[in-house]
Amino acid sequence: MVDMISPIQFVTQTYSSALLEHPLLTKATTGFFLCGLGDILAQIRGFQSSLQEGQQVKQILERMNWLRLARFAVKGFFGTCIWALWYDLSDSILSEEKIVSFIVSIVGFSDISDALLNAIRTVILILAEQFITCPIIYGFWEIPMSTLLNGAPASRITYEVKDKLFNMLFENAKVWTVANILIYNVPLQYRTGLANIMDVIWQSIVSDFAANCGKNIESVRDNEAPNKVKEEMVVVMREVVSVPPTQTTVVISSIVDGAHRTNYDDVMVGDDISEAAKAIKVSDMC
Q1: Which residues contact 55 (CB under 8 A, 6 or more apart)?
Q2: Which run of H or E residues covers position 268?
Q3: Model pTM greater than 0.90?
Q4: What is residue 52's DSSP assignment?
């Protein structure tokens, strides 16, 4: 047992010294490895049901998307720096002394037990993280950077944020609400270890979100196609509307409602633009 404790103590002391001497670099490097491990777990979870017994390790190595792993780990390196800044800022803004001063200014007394003070601070930190920090970091870093790293154009970022932000916040609340209650209340020497374990679990969830950012572009184009058709139809309608009544006329009414179709000569409202174009003869436009 003594032989097992010694290496653990060595690693713990070395890591603690690195945190003191190079805090940001150490945290970022830790984030790199934690995110990498989280992505490995996410990928294995995705194809574990199809692994053949006795050849799991070989098949995992063959199926692993190493480029995805590298992208997510590198993003985790820089993302951890952002989160480190938030934790330092929150410790400064939401220190126990400032919380006590705030409570005194409201209720008028400062006789607050340590347990109650810690509970109040924990709740404030969780709420601030969930409703302020996470939307900012996910919306301006996590989703946009994942989209760009996956090769999608910058114009796709707005769509991805709208599509994934709420779901990420929901998953974040499910994982980190209970986790933060535990982390903020366990003895100090266990907090780093517990936080790292929970972070690996969380990164395995974020990894799937990140891998899907910027994907399925064709489906997005298909969803946007009806609007494009409507815009083209309106242009055609505007060009045709000045034609005398004896010639082909197209009515724009109810174009938004594709189910409502009104017959006017050969063109019906709601028709595909190509079909509408066929119905409008060149001689009619002269």
Answers
A1: none
A2: strand 267-268
A3: no
A4: P
